[in-house]
């Protein structure tokens, strides 16, 4: 799902290079899990030009997965609406991810 946010082959290659170059020198089990599940995902998104670390960097793995799932659903809704309204909307753009993140935050706040 993360790789689908790449807008070009160059961005996909940048994501691959960032993930392949990502390593954790040491740490306890909790740090290693965080690095693999969270930090690696954020590194891949940032390599493709998506500025999400500021918004999502403090989340734990479960929260990040939920945020990505909700953002993905929000993006699908926005894509469907833009198709019906004949609006050009790039679903993989940083703006789309930010908009989807804001919808996800609103949705999470309304559930709580």
Shape: flat
Order of SSEs: HHHHH
Number of domains: 1
Number of helices: 5
**How far apart are the first and last residues' alpha carbons, in Å?**
26 Å
Average pLDDT works out at: 75
Strand content: under 5%
Instruction: Describe the sheet with the most strands.
Output: none
Radius of gyration: 15 Å
Structural class by helix and strand composition = mainly alpha
Q: Percentage of helical residues? A: 55-70%
Number of strands: 0
User: Low-confidence spans: pLDDT under 50, at least 5 residues?
Assistant: none
Summarize the structure.
The chain has 112 residues and is an all-alpha fold. It has one domain (3-111). It has five helices and no strands.
Helices and strands in order, then pairings?
Layout lengths: L8 H13 L7 H19 L5 H4 L4 H24 L9 H18 L1
Helix pairs in contact: 1-2, 4-5
Structural description of this entry:
The chain has helices at residues 9-21, 29-47, 53-56, 61-84, 94-111. With 112 residues, it is an all-alpha fold. The chain is flat and about 50 Å long. The two termini are 26 Å apart.
Keywords, separated by commas or semicolons:
112 residues; mainly alpha; 5 helices; flat
């Amino acid at each position: 799902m993360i790789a689908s946010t790449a807008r070009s082959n160059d961005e996909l290659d940048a994501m691959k290079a960032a993930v392949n170059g990502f390593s954790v020198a040491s740490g306890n089990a909790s740090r290693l899990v965080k690095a693999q599940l969270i930090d690696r995902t954020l590194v891949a998104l940032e390599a493709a030009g998506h500025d999400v670390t500021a918004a999502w960097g403090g989340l734990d793995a479960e929260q990040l997965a939920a945020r990505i799932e909700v953002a993905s659903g929000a993006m699908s809704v926005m894509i469907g609406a833009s198709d019906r309204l004949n609006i050009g909307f790039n679903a993989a753009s940083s703006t789309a991810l930010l908009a989807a993140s804001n919808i996800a935050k609103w949705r999470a706040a309304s559930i709580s």
